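User: Sequence in, structure out. Go.
Assistant: Echoing your sequence, followed by the structure tokens.
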Amino acid sequence: MVLKAIKNDIAIYATHTALDNSKNGVSAKICEVLGLENSKILIPKKGIIKKLTTYVPYASSKSLRTALFVAGAGNIGNYDNCSFNTFGNGTFKGNKDSNPVIGKKGIFHTEEETKISVVFESKNEAAILKALQNNHPYEEIAYEIVTTENIHQNIGMGMIGEFPEEMNEKDFLLYLKDTMKTNCVRHSALINKKIKKVAVLGGSGSFAISNAKKAGADAYVSSDFKYHEFFKAENSILLADIGHYESEQFTKNLLVDYLTKKISNFAVILSEKSTNPIYYI
């Protein structure tokens, strides 16, 4: 396929794992198809929110802070322009090779400074460091970057949402089979539980069974569950395996809808070819 694309001057863009982690990605499309409401990320991602701390003369603190915000710093959840500021005294003495903007070479100096701390997504680190270098007045800039324990509520695996009305397990499974256009739904034992809160994860999702249970889901829809993994239901949740291809089949519709709206004069063709290697009899 790659060779054919090269010969025909066709570019290939693979967005598979990135789309798995998007709040508007694969799992969100499943929620949409099933009609789940109030959906949110099932397993929010950790380790991608960092914090920058730096020290700047008080007179330059506002302009530097603004530049950092423009570069993408200070965003967390539903808030932006977030920062923490502490006022104090910084001291320094430049050596013979220094070229101090404030104070004099070789003379001990005390300056009223602001300690600025801002959080940011790791993808913006290069832009934020560039803004720091371009907008900080000092010849030598003291700063530190650490990774926080904050989760990113809009990035992560799986989604969880609710039906407008609850339904019994058998009706849910039949609805799931029909809506997701699958010939087979493998499921754990029925436990006579009403289904309203449902967790979903496109593709292989057995690793998130415990997350679905912890989130209080009545049912968890994914694929590629192994024999022993169905025991993890432990009579507390209904596990439903709808098939790998079936769980991701609407993703191409998601991409077509996005590109059609984003680039109105761009020709988008939705492939009708099925690449599912699994057949049912």
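User: And one key feature?
Assistant: The longest helix spans residues 251-262.
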